[in-house]
Amino acid sequence: MEAHCEPLEAAMLADASDGRLDNHTLLAAALIASGVNDRANLRRHEMAFGAIVQQLNHELADSPSLGHKAELVFHFMHTKLLSGGYALHKTDLRETLQNGKYNCLTATILYNCLANEVGLPACALESPGHVLSRVFLPDGSLDVETTCPRWFQLSSHPAKQAQHVRQTLGIARDNPTRPLREAPEIELVAMIYYNRGVDMLAAGRFAEAAAANLKSLRLCPNRPAPGGNLLATVNNWAIELARQHQFAEAAQLLRLGMAIEPTFQTFMVNYVYLYQQWTAQLCQQGRADQAIRMLQQQAAAFPEEPFFAQAAAGLQRRQHGSTVHNQPGLTEATQLPALPTVIFSTGTPKP
Q: What totals of helices (H) and strands (E) does the chain contain, helices first?
């Protein structure tokens, strides 16, 4: 299963294939992952950001220390760039630069980009469902909750800082079950794709959701969340096709899903339900012979699943005039249980 890429995006993904960005800045990669797909548009964004960095450098001219500089960068970002307020689903960096609305991912990306431009080494910190920044200073590291505008104002009041985080994000900063882990730039880009995949799956835009999750996995193959959402996307896409009686297309998707992850049992459960519905429709249309051949083919392909052989035998007995009660595959489609949908969206870096 492959995802279509425009040339600009393909070049970025190829650059990241060794686990780091060599020919792209974090800003450029994040903009491309957000949907910038031509060089002219990317260049416009980069030039606009360059002008912002020039203004920031002017304001930092008299900064007495790197710690003070880290604070000034933070206030500059919230004043000049993040004026639209916190919004959970604002993962598109283009929109953040346009209207100032942000979530933890876009705020952290922008803070790290600004910090690195002015000589402040910074990286991201990840915990389940959240990211923030870490700045490396001569006397140690400084963690920055980029989504909380009063973070530095409350630096001498840890309890109030924690309350500020809870009020802004709805999470507890001092929760021991949320360990912090330094995350490389490439993971931030992968999170953009992943969050886009979550949003597109929720909107029923299955092809786009699958593509976004595939790109996230290409950047970070070992992250479990994009893989889970890819499985959910394939599953729910197949269900929607089955609801539209596009059974062949739905079956093809579920077979693809089983090839991707053979241990994901929901695929086979839905595969059986789908063939129950397909068989019922063919019988209603007077095409029982075709249904029998179809079931026999599936019995040969999936000998470990008893439904197909049992349903084919039941239909054959009915064809020969036998009275059959409660045979698998003979239930009317309208009486079959609904196919279960699956949503994997827990633990996302959405805030």
A: 14, 6
